[in-house]
Amino acid sequence: MTGPTDPVAWLREAAETRERTGMRRVLRPRPVDDDVLDLASNDYLGLARDPRVTAAAADAARRWGAGSTGSRLVTGSTELHSRLEDRLAEFVGGEAALVFSSGYLANLGALTALADAETLVVSDALNHASVVDACRLGRATVVVTAHRDVRAVEDALARRTASRAVVVTDAVFSVDGDLAPLADLHAVARAHGALLVVDEAHSLGVIGEGGRGACVDAGIAGEPDLVRTLTLSKALGSQGGAVVASSLVVEHLVNTARAFIFDTALAPAAAAGAAAALEVLRAEPQRAATVRRRAREIFAGLRDAGVSSTAPDGAVVSVLVGDPGRAAHAAATLLADGLRVGCFRPPSVPDGVSRLRLTARADVTDDDVVRAVAAVTEVLSR
Ligand code: PMP
User: Fold this and answer.
1) 213-262 pLDDT tens trace
2) Is any atom of ligand 1 closer than 6 Å to the C-beta of 310?
3) Does ligand 1 come within 6 angstroms of the Cβ of 141?
4) What is the pLDDT of residue 3?
5) Stretch 350-374: mean pLDDT, rounded?
6) Which whole number is the average pLDDT over 101-128?
């Protein structure tokens, strides 16, 4: 009789495969201060270390504690949370908001609560992993449509047998950096009695007048059949997520969204930090236009140097490399030369389209743009 098999042998094989195919990810240390030019972070507006934001976060931690001590349905809802929700809803022109402890959880919570077994979910092929995971976790039937294909969405809605439907899309797509056709998607969703869920993770603080987001820009904010998910961890420089929707939807989420009910409330420091960042953005609305301009400058610089990248609708500039090993090597070389960029390989992107991602920030200088363009051009010419 043979003995039991080694329960972790397959992990060793998987690690070897990752190593062989250029797919291995490693955690690299990030010192508190370095002189690396960081075009990998999502701190689009440069607010994560703004003294007004960090002071508000520190004050909140001192007053309310390092953690929020429990689910809001159990230990109560603090004024920090409800004030942040009021301010977020007001900023993006929605009726009500509910904060979650991450943007990832906001997507899980919203989609699983709004799409049950009687629902068809129509999801763009390039939606963020948290949307994909939310679709997997829910009991709805899911149809994945080609990227930005409004006709395909309409066909899926027209052919549905499910009594309800939800269309879900990123506003600005996280890897390619392009914008969804939101007004058209909303029109199609409305014509077919479907809810439209829009993930504004990369558009809050970046797109639209004063950074109020892509739905405001598309003229659909505040519609009763629109649900927006936000992250507090990108343009707002903090941590956490939110859903902005009608009061009816928010009340439903408070009662049914498991990612809200069974999760410890957003930490006080994160809530206060995000609220302070929102105040900065309200007072300095030009930051949104600045980050978009910086992204366009990076794109134009690369184009003039013969490196093709996607034309950015927001802050994300995506440079196709192809081979995952080459992309990882390029990112590591750039880091050694003082430039941090994102490196996206499968499963974050489909096979064959590994890429570098440069995210612009409102606080980069003209020199930074020139330096980044030169470094990326040089490393890709090798
Ligand atoms: N949606 C999109 C489109 C994202 O890019 C991200 C973060 N990478 C999230 C949701 C998740 O947000 P968070 O990091 O706050 O969990």
Assistant:
1) 999 999 999 999 999 999 999 999 999 999 999 999 999 999 999 999 99
2) no
3) no
4) 72
5) 95
6) 97
Tell me the average pLDDT across 50-72.
97
Query: How would residue 1 be classed by pLDDT, with cut points 50, 70 and 90?
Result: low
- Among 101, 102, 104, residue to substitute to test ligand 1 (most atoms within 8 Å of Cβ): 104
**Contact in structure between 260 and 100 (CB atoms under 8 Å):** yes
Going from the Cα of 162 to the center of ligand 1, the distance in angstroms, rounded, reads 29
Which candidate, 80, 116, 79, 82, places its Cα nearest to that of 98? 82
User: Above 60 in pLDDT, residue 180?
Assistant: yes
**At 68, phi and psi to the nearest 5?**
-95, 0
**Strand residue runs (E) in the chain:** 37-39, 96-100, 119-124, 141-145, 164-170, 195-199, 226-231, 241-245, 316-322, 339-344, 354-359
Atom of ligand 1 nearest to the CA of 127: 3
Q: Could you tell me the residue ranges of all domains in the chain?
A: 51-283, 285-380
- pLDDT in the model for residue 351: 86
- Decide: 173 in ligand 1 pocket, CB within 6 A: no
- In short, whether 203's Cβ falls inside 6 Å of ligand 1 is no
- Top CATH class of 285-380 equals alpha beta
Burial 181-193 (b: 16+ CB within 10 A, else e): bbeebbebbbebe
Report pLDDT for 2. Answer: 62
**Residue 30 scores a pLDDT above 90:** no
Which class in CATH covers the domain with range 51-283?
alpha beta
Q: Whose CA is nearest to atom 15 of ligand 1?
A: 103
Residues with catalytic function: 174, 202, 234
- Is 199 close to ligand 1, i.e. is its CB under 6 Å away? yes
